[in-house]
Amino acid sequence: ESSETLNPAPSKQSSRNFKDTLLPKIMIVGRPNVGKSALFNRLTRRREALVYDTPAGHVTRDVREGIAKLAGLRFKILDTAGLETFTEDESILARTAGITATTLRKCHIALFLVDGRAGFHPQDMDVGKWLRKSAPHVKVVIAVNKAEGIHNDSTGRLMAALGEAHQLGFGDPVPISAESGEGMVDLFDSLRPLLEEAQEEIYKNVPEGVEEIKEEDEEANAKTLPLQLAIAGRPNVGKSTLVNALLREERVLTGPEPGLTRDSVTSEFEYSGRKVRLVDTAGWMQRVQVKEGPAALSAMHARKGVMMAHVVALVVDGEEIGNTRSSMRHAEAVLARWVVQEGRGLVVVVNKMDLLAGKENAKIRGDVMKAVPTEIQTILPQVSGVPVVFVSALEKKGGAAIMRNVFECYEKWCTRLTTAQLNRWLRKVMSRHPKNTSGVKYGPKVKFMTQVKARPPTFVVFVSGSGELEETDLRFLASALREDFGLDGIPLRILQRSTK
Ligand code: GDP
Ligand code: GDP
């Protein structure tokens, strides 16, 4: 089991996105009407589904893909209903067989479904043959569906169907009912060892692979696509003024998109030769204030701006903080935490510093400049070094400092360390670990480490045996990583895997 213990704890959404790329895949196969869709829907609880087209010649068929959950097991499930290889129509048969086989070969397990009520059908035999022929390396689990009530079935028909299914030569069939949910525990028992094996295999092989694939994507993206910057904050802190100041200084590539309200302004400009796109979060806080608290945060509208941003500039009102001796507002703290949780870069912009100018304000100004970084550190203890910039949007002072920090943050966020680099580092850092105080024997425990993803940097530590690193050990690794590779101020993720 992978455990994600490091703070900032990735939110469900984004940690899933990452982990989902490393989930084993199961494809449901079977002749039409055996209940493939029904099973897919049950396992995904209709939390499906990325529907993608598989074009082949002129035929376009859908393969439904979803994330399945079965008593704590998580895997990807593919449903090929409507894509059956074994239709009467010969012309469709040939083409779809090709498509399905290609997809099947990328899966780890085939879940071969037969119909317990209809009984044996010659097409079941064809499916079996096809499985053996097109993907001999894919493990097959055979299940007899529509078997609800099998244990009180006086007709004996369902038991007979089990016997027939057994004859297909894929081991003991599992009686299930996609409709009623019976037999899901048995299905779990049959799938679990295979899924665990597949997962192990994925983790053994994928790190390098993921690295390569992602690297290409990311590099391409980093060069051609603009940095997405969100300007967030409560009403009246000066977001619009700041946006205008930034846009006026720079070469504006595109203005506010026509037909959009002031709430959703998207502009692109060039800063020091690099494209920056401002993504919408204006009006964010207004919406949140309608219903304060975490529930409001999950509102789709509010999520969007942050989710689309690479870096979020959180604007706060320096004058207010100084003169009311208030701390940052609750909503601001919530937003800051959330940005980091979502794995975005964060730059805190303390605006309206012009109102704290002059000798007479020296004390207040000094307090604000000390208080805000301290407070950010309290709000986000796990991410030290979040940049804080003091500006005056009205006087157009500090724009360059904001942008410098935004780019720096972005660069760190895109950091990619090679496995060799990391493991050289790992050996050294182990000797620095306060073994005596924590009692952790690192030598035999941590085997190696690899970065599986950037944006934000995400690492997997492989731990030998059943040993699990504790929260404090992961923190130690994270803070050492930050220190040694200059990754301060950005979210980092460390997952651990046991290598058994
Ligand atoms: P597919 O063509 O393989 O995707 O099959 P469907 O999921 O569309 O199901 C075909 C038919 O079988 C539908 O009428 C379903 O309601 C029915 N069905 C599916 N699962 C079960 C089950 O577990 N028990 C019973 N009795 N009927 C089922
Ligand atoms: P928004 O609601 O966050 O977009 O805030 P606005 O940009 O509309 O600004 C709210 C008010 O604060 C306006 O009256 C601005 O003129 C004022 N304001 C914005 N930035 C500054 C600043 O740096 N200094 C001062 N003194 N006022 C500012």
Automatic annotation (TrEMBL):
The keyword Repeat applies. The chain holds residues 134 to 633 of 634 of the full protein. Signal peptide: none annotated. The lineage of its organism: Eukaryota, Viridiplantae, Streptophyta, Embryophyta, Marchantiophyta. One of its GO terms (molecular function) is GTP binding. Residues 25-146, 229-352 form the G domain. It comes from Riccia fluitans. Keywords: GTP-binding, Nucleotide-binding, Repeat, Ribosome biogenesis. Residues 416-497 form the GTPase Der C-terminal KH-domain-like domain. This is GTPase Der.
